[in-house]
Amino acid sequence: MKHYLKKIAAVVAVGMLTLAVAGCGGGEKKDATADAIKKKGKLIVGTATGYYPFEMADKNGQLVGFDIDVAKALGKELGVEIEFQNYAFSGLIPALQAKKVDLVIAGMTITDKRKEVVDFSETYFKSGQAMLVSKKYPGVKKWEDLDKKGNVIAVSMGTTADQTASKMFKNAEVKKFDGSALAGLEVLNGKAVAVIHEVPWVAIYNRMNSEATYAVLEPFTTEELGIAVPKGNAALLAEVNKFVKKYKASEEYKKAYAYWFVDMKWWDSVPQKKK
Questions:
Q1: Locate the Ionotropic glutamate receptor C-terminal domain: which residues (predicted)?
Q2: Quick check: 11 and 210 in contact, CB under 8 A?
């Protein structure tokens, strides 16, 4: 992972989370069996925009990102159209449980706690937690440097960063926000010393706000991302796992990986609003 991290240089634009995605919020419950999805000809995918470069809006308001490419490739494999529904990250699993979406592709880490309520596909991406630190707080090299009384650590509520920071930090205060952009804003406003988040987000947010922040990109955790499907839907899970295995071995996956994490040719196609 290190090879691409050195090439990633970016920071998430403040306010870019406010993406209007068609069908946001959902409503009607759906039959999410594999056969039912194929019969209706449409796969409804839950995601949470604002997590660069996994899911975000370009300058034309179109949903783009690595996960979006994954979802579209899955739809192609199943022979169905894709409909995206956008939620706050903390609302994705409830939406899946309520059958408002068929599955979730949103940079979601596979954890034992989440596996109690949903099933996960095989890993489609490996990541880890890193630190975005305010330049007003220099010299941070490891997470223990931040764990001091009086320090505020910002996280996106319901994410693995939230769970990790809440468990590891014993002295600093961990504050939870509804989305990554609001957590980052807390650092830019001088109200938090750092944000804990996965490596790609930290690298991108630092690039977009390099005058106020610096990044510690060496991950202090190792995490695997999976596609979440409804608990107990063995047929759909088998279909998704079959796709993941095939897709990870394909040239299409390699091209998507290079485009979103190495070459970063998408950089000028998305808003880069600075505060």
A1: 42-263
A2: yes
pTM here? 0.71
C-alpha to C-alpha distance for 229 and 102, rounded to whole angstroms:
7
Query: In this structure, are residues 218 and 140 in contact, taking their beta carbons and an 8 Å threshold?
Result: no
Largest CA distance in the chain: 57
CA distance 65 to 53: 5
Q: Which whole-number Å values give the CA distances from 191 to 159, 174, 188, 195, 202, in the listed order?
A: 20, 12, 8, 11, 18
Cα four-point dihedral sign 111, 1, 107, 71: negative
Q: Given the DSSP bridges, would you call strands 152-156 and 194-198 parallel, antiparallel or unpaired?
A: parallel
User: What is the per-residue pLDDT across 194-228, written as a single tens digit (0 to 9) for each?
Assistant: 999 988 889 888 988 999 999 998 899 998 999 99
How deeply is 66 buried, as exposed, middle or buried, from its count of CB atoms within 10 A (0-12, 13-18, 19+)?
A: buried
Report residue 19's pLDDT band, with 50, 70 and 90 as the boundaries. very low
d(CA 118, CA 67): 19
Provide the 8-state DSSP code for 260: I
